[in-house]
Design brief:
Blueprint lengths: L27 H10 L5 E5 L6 H11 L8 E5 L11 H10 L9 H9 L4 E6 L5 H14 L3 E7 L8 E5 L5 H15 L9 H8 L4 H9 L6 H7 L3 H4 L14 H10 L3 H9 L6 E2 H8 L9 H10 L4 E6 L2 E5 L2 H13 L3 H23 L7 H13 L1 H14 L2 H10 L1 H6 L3 H13 L6 H17 L3 H17 L3 H18 L2 H15 L5 H18 L2 H17 L3 H18 L2 H18 L2 H17 L3 H18 L2 H17 L3 H17 L8 H14 L1 H13 L2 H9 L31 H11 L4 H8 L3 H15 L4 H11 L11
Helix pairs in contact: 4-5, 6-7, 6-8, 7-9, 12-14, 12-15, 13-16, 16-18, 16-19, 18-19, 19-21, 19-22, 21-22, 22-23, 22-24, 23-24, 24-25, 24-26, 25-26, 26-27, 26-28, 27-28, 28-29, 28-30, 29-30, 30-31, 30-32, 31-32, 32-33, 32-34, 32-36, 33-34, 33-35, 33-36, 34-35, 37-39, 37-40, 38-39
Protein name: ATP-binding protein
InterPro entries: AAA_22, HTH_77, P-loop_NTPase, Sig_transdc_resp-reg_C-effctor, TPR-like_helical_dom_sf, TPR_MalT, Tscrpt_reg_LuxR_C, WH-like_DNA-bd_sf
Keywords: ATP-binding, Nucleotide-binding
Length: 825
């Protein structure tokens, strides 16, 4: 039997595969998997959207497999065949490629089957989508009669035939996309060099689609990568100059998608353009938003499945028990243009926003336990809204653009707990502010809860001054609306802000007022959260024995309503209480118990705080290895949320760790960086309470001039520099010797790191160490006993102590506490 010959350019080696015009980039894993797959199955269809690289992958695979097929690897290109032409178009093209002549009076597929029977051949059918039925019939007939034949097809939709294995060609990985762009860019302009993150931005914006990347790379003849990235918002105009020798459908990005669009039925086109309102969706959402009198809800499932088959819609992961779908960004932009041209954009985007609003308010009530639900259901909601972020941003943008201020504010208010948990309070506070700025005349039932929710977002971002202002403003409209739930919420938020500001009596009064409202049914969340806030208040007051009961009560209530995030907040409070009382094993246990809850829902801010607590306890237990592990994760989480007070606390703890590890210079540097960050966040730029205990011996070890220099360097450091210094592993040989030498004569007066205690508090600490009572201290300083008591409470809170004895021991070590006149420290 003679080898098959091609009449269209095949060679004696048994192939007509084209020579690859330029280097093939990436997809090494895909190639390996496909080679293995073709050893076990006989028909594989490479499916994907236009420009995803199906043909190039098939040709590359064919070249790699030439030695495995004794009778050759043959490519039949179908893209130029008309959809409505002579009968058996696919068979005629295959016969032409293989050099098989038609026989009068005999069907051509039978002739082909006889020619291929017994031959070991890989037949590549390229671009089958417009001839999918004919391709399926021929492939099925040949495979049934030719046992050594393998068929590799490329198509924008599956052939849907027995024995077919569909391989969805994925976009390029980010690193592969960058390599492809750079390779093609250098071919267009040999002196091209990539700089910054523009190439990575282009790869992300173009979803790793090779055709789009190659078209973008061709523009480096006249544009920089940064300019290309900036202009991708108008990508169809930008990416309109491709290879003149390529088929017309592959010369521009629009033409590639046009080709797919033209193959759709009318109802499929309607659904495609309406889906442009989403960044990702479920079947239920598509039915709610896309159906109307033109397109029935009962039709959406089959139409959506057809769009998936035709590679215009991608099936994503399952989230909260529902499969999600998405479009590549270029397809979505194309569909959005079609939506605008059809005059449907306003109606569809409003339905999209309203569907999200309805779900957000229902899910928001579940989140804060106004509606009963198990914890597992709440965990699913957190995961759902991770996937919904793009939709929510789109809905909020549409509401602002359309002047729908009430609807936008209601979305922000409903989902406030989600934003706080995820550490995204800053972004969603900004969204809320944009609506509030345009919210004059809003009804009290909308404005009051929005202000209370905004106050909670401020607490989430640790901006307690803002929290107080918004919560105060929320009280009147919440009361006017008769909204006891949000009134109680605002009061608890006010109590939190007052506690942080040292207005402890005011905080207690706010909590008492909130308690009266939260006693009603359905207020379990506020009742529990208020109880936890009372525990934190008592810690701040130095009433440590009385703090445990409200924290444990809040913990029990939160567990009872299935709100374990709230329970974790109570556990962190109990950990802090145990720290203050010096019960390190109990503190470690409470912080550790909070961790799995917080990890389950990705609660980055609280997770960072619990880990910071574990790090502090490990330091107290002289376990620097465990401290470094916990503090490293805490700092990285805090940086990801951008909450400056949390970052500063992490740097404070690292300063203490550096001192323990023998790096006094690093300790002072990190203390200065933490102080500067606190000052930038609007807090006093003092050293952290715990670090105060380290500063005195560091001053003695390094000397005041060097401490001042290192402190100033830390204050001037960027966040990246400070974090890099914190995360640097300790030198086993000791790092103290690496400290910079003290300047002989500083040009400017040294800036000494301030004490966490005020001058008056240091005076009182000295007198406590000498054994004086509050009344005796009052007589010594000529102030009232009540003022002394307030100062002692502040000292306990700032230093993290639970008793006067701890203050006395600390002061004896670090202050001049001998008999005689008191000296300011």
């Amino acid at each position: 039997m003679t080898p098959l010959k091609s009449t269209t350019g095949g060679d004696a080696a048994g192939t007509n595969l084209p020579v690859e015009p330029d280097p093939f980039i990436g997809r090494e894993r895909d190639l390996a998997d496909l080679r293995a797959l073709l050893e076990t199955v006989r028909a594989v269809t490479l499916c994907g959207t236009g420009g995803i690289g199906k043909t190039r992958l098939a040709v590359r695979l064919g070249h790699a497999l030439r030695g495995a097929y004794a009778d050759g690897v043959w490519l039949a290109e179908l893209g130029d065949l008309p959809a409505h032409g002579p009968p058996d178009p696919v068979a005629r093209r295959v016969a032409s490629v293989l050099g098989v002549a038609e026989e009068d009076g005999r069907p051509l597929p039978e002739t082909l089957a006889d020619a291929l029977r017994g031959r070991q051949v890989l037949l590549v059918l390229d671009n089958c989508e417009h001839l999918v039925a004919d391709s399926a019939r021929l492939t099925g007939a040949l495979l049934a009669r030719c046992p050594r034949l393998r068929v590799l097809a490329t198509s924008r939709e599956p052939l849907r035939m027995a024995g077919e294995t569909v391989w969805r060609v994925p976009p390029l990985e980010p690193a592969e996309a960058a390599r492809l762009f750079e390779e093609r860019a250098r071919a267009a302009r040999p002196d091209f060099t990539a700089g910054g993150g523009a190439v990575e931005e282009i790869g992300r914006a173009l979803d790793g689609v090779p055709l789009a990347l190659e078209l973008a790379a061709a523009r480096v003849r006249v544009l920089s990568a940064e300019q290309i990235a900036h202009r991708l918002a108008d990508r169809f105009r930008l990416l309109n100059a491709g290879d003149r020798t390529a088929p017309p459908r592959q010369r521009t990005l629009r033409a590639a998608i046009d080709w797919s669009h033209e193959l759709l039925g009318e109802e499929e086109r309607v659904l495609l353009r309406r889906l442009a309102a989403f960044s990702g969706w479920t079947l239920e959402q598509a039915e709610a938003v896309c159906a109307d009198e033109v397109l029935g809800a009962d039709e959406v499932l089959d139409l959506l499945a057809a769009l998936v088959d035709k590679s215009l819609v991608t099936v994503g992961a399952e989230v909260a028990g529902e499969v999600r779908f998405r479009m590549l960004d270029s397809v979505r932009r194309y569909a959005a243009e079609r939506l605008d041209a059809a005059g449907e954009a306003a109606a569809v985007r409003t339905r999209h926003r309203d569907a999200l609003l309805e779900a957000a308010e229902r899910h928001g009530e579940i989140g804060i336990a106004e509606q009963a639900a198990p914890w597992a259901a709440r965990v699913e909601l957190f995961r759902r809204y991770d996937a919904e972020l793009g939709n929510l941003r789109g809905a909020l943008s549409w509401s602002l653009e359309n002047g729908d201020i009430e609807e936008g504010l209601r979305i922000c208010t409903a989902l406030r707990t989600y934003w706080i948990v995820r550490g995204q309070a800053a972004e969603w506070a900004e969204w809320t502010d944009r609506f509030l700025e345009r919210g004059d005349g809003l009804p009290a039932p909308v404005r009051g809860p929005a202000l209370a929710g905004r106050a909670q977002l401020a607490v989430g971002g640790r901006d307690f001054a803002q929290a107080r202002a918004f919560a105060e403003a929320a009280l009147e409209p919440c009361r006017e609306a008769g909204d006891d739930f949000m009134t109680a919420t605002a009061l608890v938020t006010l109590a939190e802000a007052d506690t942080r500001a040292g207005r402890l009596a005011e905080a207690a009064a706010r909590l008492a007022e909130a308690d009266a409202l939260a006693a009603q049914p359905g207020q379990e969340w506020n009742r529990a959260y208020g109880s936890i806030a009372r525990g934190y208040l008592r810690i701040r007051e130095g009433r440590l024995r009385e703090a445990r009961e409200p924290l444990e009560s809040g913990l029990e209530t939160m567990r009872g309503i299935g709100q374990l995030w709230g329970a974790a907040h109570a556990l962190i409070g109990l950990g802090r209480l145990d720290e203050a009382r010096g019960d390190r094993p109990a503190a470690r246990a409470h912080y550790g118990e909070a961790l799995p809850i917080l990890r389950e829902i990705g609660a980055r801010p609280e997770l960072a705080r619990a880990l910071a607590g574990l790090g502090r306890v490990a330091l107290d237990q002289d376990d620097p290895g465990a401290a470094r592990a916990a503090l490293t994760e805490s700092l990285r989480l805090s940086r990801s949320t951008g909450i400056r007070l949390d970052i500063s606390r992490a740097l404070d703890a690292f300063a203490e760790l550096a001192a323990r590890e023998g790096d006094p210079a690093g300790a002072v540097f990190l203390g200065g960086a933490a102080a500067a960050l606190r000052e930038a966040a609007g807090r006093a730029p003092d050293a952290g309470a715990r670090f105060e205990r380290e500063l005195e011996p560091l001053r003695r070890e390094l000397g005041e001039p060097l401490v001042a220099q290192l402190w100033a360097e830390g204050r001037a450091a960027t966040l990246d520099e400070a974090a890099g210094r914190a995360l640097r592993e300790p030198d086993p040989a000791g790092t103290a010797a690496a400290a910079p030498a003290a300047p002989a004569a500083p040009v400017t007066p040294p800036v000494t790191p301030p004490s966490v205690l005020t001058a008056r508090e240091r005076e009182i600490a000295q007198l406590v160490a000498r054994g004086l009572s509050n009344r005796a201290i009052a007589a010594e300083l000529v102030i009232s006993p009540a003022t002394v008591a307030r100062h002692v409470t502040n000292i306990l809170a700032k230093l993290g102590f639970g008793s006067r004895a701890q203050v006395a021991a600390w002061a004896v070590d670090r202050l001049d506490c001998g008999p005689g006149p008191v000296r300011n420290g």
